[in-house]
Structure formats: C-alpha cells, structure tokens
Specification:
Elements lengths: L29 H10 L3 E4 L8 H12 L7 E4 L9 E3 L6 H8 L6 H10 L5 E2 L8 E4 L22 E2 L3 E5 L6 E5 L1 E6 L2 E5 L5 H11 L4 E7 L3 H7 L9 H9 L4 E4 L6 E3 L4 E15 L2 E2 L5 E2 L2 E13 L5 E3 L8 H21 L4 E6 L8 E6 L6 H12 L6 E6 L7 H10 L3 H4 E8 L21 E9 L13 H9 L12
Parallel strand pairs: 1-2, 3-18, 4-12, 20-21, 21-23
Antiparallel strand pairs: 2-3, 5-17, 6-9, 7-8, 7-11, 9-10, 10-17, 11-14, 12-13, 14-17, 15-16, 19-20, 22-23
Helix pairs in contact: 4-7, 4-8, 6-7
Length: 499
C-alpha cells in the first residue's frame, strides 16, 4: 500500500518524518535533513506513481534542465511502482544552497568548515543498537530486488545502479576506515558489481586483501546524516577516517553500530545498509554506465560483492544521487567538497595567497580548475598549479590562475581574463605524463577498456591569466553608481529577484 509521504507523525499509515519542531543541531539522520529542506522550500514532493526503470531518471534530468540552479529542489518520489519505499534524489547537491543546508553554513563558510573538520576530526561513537537494524534480512532473505534501485541511462546501462552508496571498507594493515562513493551495478538478488577506480582509497584496501588472498568485508550505506554522504564523495587524505571528519562537520560524533555479518561499523541512523564480502581476486564484467562526464563509461572488470545481509529502518527511504551529464547532483557535491579540501591544502599547507578555487561543474568537477590568488611574486601562479596537481593528481586537466578581482564562478569573467591577460607563448605551460582525469573519453577509445594503463596518464595545461604588468583602468561605471542603482532596482520597474 502506498500512502502520501508526510513529515507529520499524525498520519500513522503514511511515510513520516519527525514532527515539525526546531531542527536539532546536528541533523540526526536523513529524515531530519529532509524536514529542514521542506521548511526551506528546497524539497519537491512528487505524489504520482513513477516507474523506477525509466521515469525517475527522466524527471531528474528535466528538473535540472528547467529549474534554475538557485531554486532547484531535492525531489521526493513518494510512490514508486512496485516498491514499498519512496526515493529521494538531489538531497545533497541539487544546488549549492542545498549543499550549504547540509553543512549548516552559508556559501562563505564551506571552506572553513571543511578545513576544521580535516584538522580536528571527531572519532565515531560506538553504541549497542540503532534504527538502521530495525529490520534484518540474512542469507537468502537479503533480496536486493526489494530495493527501488533506478535505471539511469535507459537502453545503455545494463542494469539498475546504486549511485549514492557510501561504501565502507577498512585497511587490513592500518585499520583505518575509508568511506567512498562508487558505481554499483545490480547483478542479482544477492550480487553486486562494484567499480572502484584507481587512486581511490577503497581500491587500495581491496588490493591489499587480494595480495594476501583474503576477501574484503564491505558495507554499503544508503541514506544517512547528510554530512556522511558529503565526505563519501569528497577527496580526503588516505590516512583519514571519513566518519571522523563527518563527526567534526556535524559537531558531534557519528553514532555507529556493528554490522550483523561483517566486522565493520555503520552509521546507526542510516536508512539502508547492504553487508557483503568482496571475493579475493575475482573480477567480472561490469558496465557500461552513464558517467559524470556526460558520456557512457566503458565496461570494466570490476569487483564482485556477495551480499550476506540487508538491514533497514522501518519505513525506509531510498536515496539516489543524480549523476550523468553535468550539471548534476554528483558534480555539485564533488565540486564544493573538492574545492574546500584543495583550498585548505593551498592556503594552510603551502601558505600560498590563494583567495578561492573552483572546479567547474561543466567539467564534472574534475577537468577544469580555476584558482584566484593575490599575486605578490611572478612565480606564484605556477606554484599554485603545481600544488593543486600534487594534491589531486587526477583533477585540473585545464588549470587557470587568475587575479583576485575575477569572480571564478562566473564563466564570462574567467573567459575575459583568458582573453586579455594571457600571452599564450609566455603564459601557457603543458605538463606531460600527469595523472588522467578519470573516465575522460578523450583519453583513448573506450574499446581499449578502463583498466588499460595507457588511460591512466595524460597531459595538463596550466594558464597564468594574471596581470603581469600595470593594466589600464577597467571600463565600467563607478562602483558607487552601481551600488546606488542596485539599492533602487525596483524603482526602475524590475522585480527584486531579477537583480
């Protein structure tokens, strides 16, 4: 039976979230965050029945096309045909404002929150039990087909894919936990294909176990406190426990419980958890899949997860990330998280006068990097390029450094700097033999296969688009005149929102 998904606890037959009251700090779970999104006008309910095999993906794509980024909401599909669970998409990265609500800060506070979280993590707190294990299905009862996993690229993806899974593994040598978001193909009622690209922490854990001939325990978390999803999709140093970083982001330890069938800890208030084992040295064809680049990612020989257990909350919510062609939820999440950690590295570790960094969403938050700095030495732009490439080798195929007066989130401003502050012969550097942007289709024909070593290296281009000498004055009206007009904008017959 399907009822309208409600945030009110007075409708006992309907899906519900906690009663309306002041949202606690921090968010206890995904449900508390969805309540905040609705209160902020950032959640759109879809009450008509939808087909997970084509309709969810199509609605998400049209929403991203038609709704301006500043007003784009998360989408709650309350009635999914053939499933007892609703599906929410866009809940972490429908827009930058949604992302900021997840972090409980404004856009200017994002870098600071990430920097503090990386420098001062708060370890998780183990508790005896949590709502994530209100329903437990072990062995043959652990049926993945009960989950409303959408098909994203109809006619091209070979099967439904889990796009929002926070994949938890542990380094068998150091014991350090990793949480990462990777593509996960549904292969059977108790079988998943897991693709983890090189340079990812989870892959290192699996390969260490493979060399010892041991299977790798894995837990796939779907729907949790929003900061857990954010750290899962953000690049952090290999020796960092992402759940500890999440603890600092939320201002309180993440409560975890022990899995039922594998030796791992999971967030206690998550919606759904899939427990399993990655069999040692076993690979199977997986993909193709519609990737963050906007192109189909190639088939790959990927890990196999044998599912041992599925646990979920009462009235569980299935969360999905909107990916594929940018702009997308996945590119928004990666862009903001990666910018914050890269900014911290350049400013606090390398002490460069960097003012801001931006990974353009049109590049899948990977291929096109812009850095703004207050230059005091002619070598600083190239130093910033090298610092960025060393921290995140697979990012910034195109890296542009501009002066601090350029709004690096305005493509027209960046293109203006490229047009009139660059002499190509002097200001452009090409670096061969660098790490490639992952899944970049320009790298080589997709028939070569993702695991071919030739796809792992590429070249990068760095452009110093800063002023090298005194420039003429900028040709715009005086700032005080512009501010006066902005202040009296409605007097000219314009609506306030058109400013």
């Amino acid at each position: 039976m399907h009822g309208r998904y409600s945030f009110s606890s007075t409708q006992s037959s309907a899906w519900f979230l906690p009663p309306k009251k002041a949202t606690p700090m921090p968010y206890k779970d995904l449900r508390a965050f969805l309540k905040k999104l609705e209160e902020s006008g950032k959640l759109h309910r879809i009450g008509k029945p939808v087909d997970k095999d084509w309709e969810i993906a199509a609605v998400c794509r049209v929403a991203f096309e038609r709704i301006p980024e500043s007003r784009r909401p998360a989408l709650l599909f309350e009635r999914v045909t053939g499933s007892a669970m609703p599906v929410v998409a866009g809940a972490l990265g429908a827009s930058r404002s949604v992302y900021c609500l997840a972090l409980e800060c404004d856009n200017h506070g994002v870098h600071r929150k990430w920097s503090e979280a990386e420098l001062h993590p708060i370890p998780p707190q183990r508790i005896a039990q949590g709502p994530v294990q209100e329903n437990v299905f072990i062995g043959d009862q652990a049926d993945l087909y009960r989950l409303p996993i959408p098909t994203w690229t109809v006619g091209r993806d070979p099967a439904p894919y889990i796009t929002s899974g926070c994949v938890i593994t542990v380094d068998p040598e150091s014991g350090i936990r990793n949480v990462g978001t990777y593509r996960i193909q549904l292969k059977g009622p108790r079988k998943l294909g897991l693709f983890i690209n090189y340079l990812q922490g989870g892959r290192e854990h699996v390969e260490k176990n493979n060399r010892m001939g041991r299977p790798t325990p894995v837990a796939i978390v779907i729907g949790s406190d929003p900061v857990i999803g954010l750290v899962s999709a953000t690049r952090l140093p290999q020796d960092t426990d992402e759940l500890a970083v999440a603890g600092r982001l939320r201002g309180d330890p993440v409560e975890v419980v022990h899995c039922k069938t594998v030796d791992l800890e999971i967030p206690a208030t998550a919606e759904i958890v899939i427990e399993g084992m990655i069999q040692a040295n076993e690979l199977e064809s997986e993909g193709p899949f519609g990737e963050y680049t906007g192109y189909m990612g190639p088939k790959a020989m990927s890990y196999i997860v044998d599912v041992q257990c599925i646990t979920h909350r009462d009235q569980a919510i299935f969360q999905a990330f909107i990916s594929q062609m940018p702009p997308s939820e996945s590119s928004c999440i990666r862009s903001m998280g990666r910018e914050a950690t890269l900014h911290k590295h350049l400013v606090e570790d390398l002490h460069l006068p960097v003012r801001d960094v931006h990974l353009m969403e049109s590049s899948g938050a990977a291929a096109y990097l812009v850095i703004a700095l207050k230059k005091s030495h002619p070598a600083q732009p190239r130093t910033a390029m090298c610092g960025a490439w060393s921290f995140a080798p697979q990012f910034g195929k195109f890296t542009v450094v501009v002066d601090e007066d350029i709004d690096i989130r305005d493509p027209s401003a960046v293109n203006w700097a490229l047009s009139f502050r660059v002499q190509p012969e002097q200001d452009v550097v090409i670096m061969p033999g660098m790490a490639a942007v992952q899944l970049d289709p320009s790298q080589a024909p997709v028939e070569i296969g993702q695991e071919d070593p030739s796809r792992r290296t590429s070249s990068k281009i760095g452009i110093d688009a800063t002023r090298k000498h005194p420039f003429p004055a900028v040709a715009v009206p005086p700032q005080e005149h512009l501010e006066l007009v902005r202040k009296n904008w409605q007097g000219y017959g314009f609506q306030e929102g058109s400013l």
